[in-house]
Amino acid sequence: MKTLLEVITIEMQKAFESAGVDASFAKVTLSNRPDLCEYQCNGAMAAAKTYKKAPIQIANAVVEKLQSCEYFSEAVAVQPGFINMKAAPSFVAKYLNQMAVSENLGSEKEEKPKTIIIDYGGPNVAKPLHVGHLRSAIIGESVKRTARFKGNKVISDIHMGDWGYQMGLIITELERRQPKLPYFDENYKGEYPKEAPFTIGELEEIYPTASAYAKEHDEYREKALHATYLLQNGHRGYRALWGHIMKVSVADLKKNYEQLNVEFDLWKGESDVQKYIPGMVERLKDTHYAHYDEGALVVDVQEKGDKKEVPPCMILKSDGAALYDTTDLATLLEREELYKPDEIIYVVDKRQELHFVQVFRCAKKTEIAGQGTDLKFLGFGTMNGKDGKPFKTREGGVMRLENLIRDIVEEMYQKIMDNRTVSEEEALHTARIVGLAALKYGDLSNQASKDYVFDVDRFTSFEGNTGPYILYTIVRIKSILNKYKEMHGTLDGLAIQEPSDGFEKTLMLEAVKFNDVIETVYEESAPHKNCAYIYDLANAFNKFYHETKILTEEDETKQSGYIALLKLVKEILETCIDLLGFEAPERM
Fold first, then answer.
1. How far apart are CA 102 and CA 568, in angstroms?
2. Which among 238, 322, 218, 231 is positioned nearest to 280, based on CA atoms?
């Protein structure tokens, strides 16, 4: 079904045309002065110059055509030429009842669904997930869910770092510690062990140890670089070790992402596209897109109009080694070949923007990415502590993601147990649900591109613009609906009635925004606008709740209308939080 703004805009277009003014001027928006009206149109101001008339004259002519429209209880022209409108209560109730029985609450799917790849996550294997991985994971997950909600085929790819220098470091350190392992015996011809010679805990300790040692010992560093070269060129023992590293790391990554309620369709890494690189390099040479500059193979991507220098996209270093540019281009090549996407969205730290400008331009210039493939960079800001610096542990180190989740859950558990209304077991279960909501909402309520302060105390509060507040609102509505069902036996067959007061109409007007909001969230890849909407909707409900006798209302028709409205509001809130990647408990 069309959004309410679309429905009103169509009527406004008819009124403009009837008044002899082109329909293109008939844009309707939500009012920026809700104390005066609910919707507004400023088209008469823009049309005045074209039609050489005073704006108020055009506005009056349009308003006259709107007087018989059932959609408005009021439509007035205001100096110098604004058109202010209030929606008719019967029209709003009718629209909400239609939403309540429509699939996806009336949200229209794409007429021509797209194939969209979302590249998010991006962890390096053999390293623990830390807070720096949080934003990519939960922003990407929300963008994915919203795109699917709109009917697109969405493929999510974690895109792991699994093929670089860190692998050579781990192999070198393992050989130093356990030189008798068969992987280091060049004469070994048998089957390698099925079990890894390390645990995930040992693996996570090996890498930083090796990395620190290599920085101070050139011989060790050279050996690690050579091990990387041998691995990438098919060394049998090193490939077997790499297989163990991948198996152990991916199992741990899946466990941690599961805690975040984040899922990927593809668990691909840089290693998956190595086979594309030689052919791609030769093609870039043969087509003369690539040339040598001081020994390095590069593709120029500077364009006319650039205010700043955009360095060439480097395909190979002077020693012949591939780089991130090379791997990302090869990944695009693979994605075009296997999935033929209409759109690829990269959810990445905004500090990598220049890198992706280079890669995108190179991919388009060299036709690695098809002309019909839209490449989007969704850059996110830094998660900072209260001191304004990147979030750290009390000891000053980078916090592991699982520890952050644990701390949030413990904080929520203590708050729930302070009330002592549920058992310890239920409190822990609820704390996990609410803790995840606190964490995700605390992040997603901020515009992705902006830095924000991670404040556990504020995020876990049951008051204000927080995840727990949203969930508490949903649980409150569930409680009312359950009590009504106990009294009357069913929630079926109820219809939303015309609002009887301002609080009810305000709630209804917030509810009808759902489809407009989701369309904007989808088009702009902007989960923070979803958060802003459900906060406004939750506030509107809570004001209505405090000012209205719902379960004690004696007029059964009025009461059933209240319940029908609350049932829809609950469904809207639950749909929105699902798109954000969390859920609500049954009680709190």
1. 11
2. 322
Strand partners, 423: none
CA dist 404 and 414 (Å) reads 16
Is-contact 280 329, C-beta < 8 A?
yes
Q: Is the pTM of this model over 0.85?
A: yes
Helix (H), strand (E) counts: the chain = 20, 13
Amino acid of residue 184: F
pLDDT in tens, 484-533: 999 999 999 999 999 988 999 999 999 999 999 999 999 999 999 999 99
Q: Which residues contact 444 (CB under 8 A, 6 or more apart)?
A: 138, 139, 142, 527, 528, 530, 531, 580, 581
pLDDT, tens only, 228-260: 999 988 999 999 999 999 999 999 999 999 999
Domain with CATH 3.30.1360.70 in the chain: 4-87
Residue 32 to residue 38: CA distance in whole angstroms: 8
Distance of CA 433 to the CA centre of its chain: 19
Instruction: Give which of 126, 235, 245, 228 is closest to 185, Cα–Cα.
Output: 235
Query: In this structure, what DSSP letter does residue 501 have?
Result: S
Residue by residue, DSSP assigns 157-173 as E--BB-SSHHHHHHHHH
- Going from the C-alpha of 441 to that of each of 137, 379, 555, the distances in angstroms are 13, 18, 38
pLDDT digit string, tens, across residues 301-324: 999 999 999 999 999 999 888 899
In whole angstroms, what is the distance from residue 98 CA to residue 106 CA?
Answer: 8
**Three-state helix/strand/coil letters over 188-240:** CCCCCCCCCCCCHHHHHHHHHHHHHHHHHCHHHHHHHHHHHHHHHCCCHHHHH
**204 alpha carbon, distance to own chain's centre:** 28
Q: Is the separation of the CB atoms in 3 and 515 below 8 Å? A: yes
Cis peptide before 80 (omega within 30 of 0): yes
Q: Tokens 């995930």 correspond to what residue?
A: 200
Structural tokens at position 344: 């690829």
Superfamily grouping for domain 4-87: Arginyl tRNA synthetase N-terminal domain (3.30.1360.70)
Query: How far from the centroid of its chain's Cα atoms is residue 550's Cα?
Result: 36
The whole-angstrom distance between residue 68's C-alpha and the CA centroid of its chain comes to 43
SS3 470: helix
Q: Tokens representing 4?
A: 């309410």
Q: Angle, to 10 degrees, between the axis of helix 89-101 and the axis of helix 502-511?
A: 40
